[in-house]
Amino acid sequence: MIKNLIFDFGGVLLPISEAKTRKALKELGAKKSLEEDRELFNQYEKGEITSKEFETGIQLHLFRKVFLDDIDQAWNGLIDSKISPEIIELLKGKKDKYRIFLLSNTNELHIKAIKDSSGIFLYSNFLRQFEKTYLSYEIGMRKPDAEIFEKVLKDNELEADETFYIDDSEQHILSAEKLGIHTWHFNPEEDDINDLDKVLSKLH
Q1: How far apart are CA 162 and CA 128, in angstroms?
Q2: Distance (Å, rounded) from C-alpha 124 to C-alpha 142?
Q3: Which 8-state DSSP code applies to residue 14?
Q4: Each residue's pLDDT expressed in tens, for the chain with a length of 204 residues
Q5: Where are the domains of the chain?
């Protein structure tokens, strides 16, 4: 029986468009080398470098010098909506039956942008719905590494076969499944998070 729900953030609980960020960075003069520099993005998501160091790292992959504010705006281009009250209500409705957690690969600039777009009250209300939140840049780990899933399970004494994880990334889903966690590979273009109960009913 499923007793625990772990939610990804962007792409599941908050609509995002990575294509908008890629387009915005390209318009700033991004070289092909930027997309290839996975280490820069991974380090930032794990909190190993500061936002200033990340911005400087992006600047090195641009054909021309630009203002850091322009880099931030481009980087945050994927966040084009605020947290919806409907999502908060959905989470509230799950708390009586399940222990719920948030597990996200994210970074300081994106979280600041979400706070700014949603407002501190809405953002705080959103976070209160979770027993605990795990943001990659705060804990120094990122998906799909097994250690981050193991940490969530161990910290909260969760059994993998009693835990259900929702994410829009196939590689993250596969990593969780290797640990025995039940999953939903969520497709933002086709799936509706409001169908969660229907998906869970197949496991009970």
Answers
A1: 22
A2: 23
A3: B
A4: 999 999 999 999 999 999 999 999 999 999 999 989 999 999 999 999 999 999 999 999 999 999 999 999 999 999 978 999 999 999 999 999 999 999 999 999 999 999 999 999 999 999 999 999 999 999 999 999 999 999 999 999 999 999 999 999 999 999 999 999 999 999 999 999 999 999 999 886
A5: 4-14+83-201, 18-78
At the fourth CATH level, the homologous superfamily of domain 4-14+83-201 is HAD superfamily/HAD-like (3.40.50.1000)
Q: How far is Cα 7 from Cα 169, in angstroms, rounded to an integer?
A: 12
Distance separating alpha carbons of residues 126 and 89, to the nearest angstrom: 9
The CATH classification number of 18-78 equals 1.10.150
pTM metric for this prediction: 0.95
Token representation of residue 85: 């009250």
The CA distance from 172 to 117, in Å, is 27
Sheet containing strand 4-7, strands side by side: 132-135, 99-104, 4-7, 163-167, 182-185
Torsion angle, CA of 166/170/173/175, rounded to 10 degrees? -160
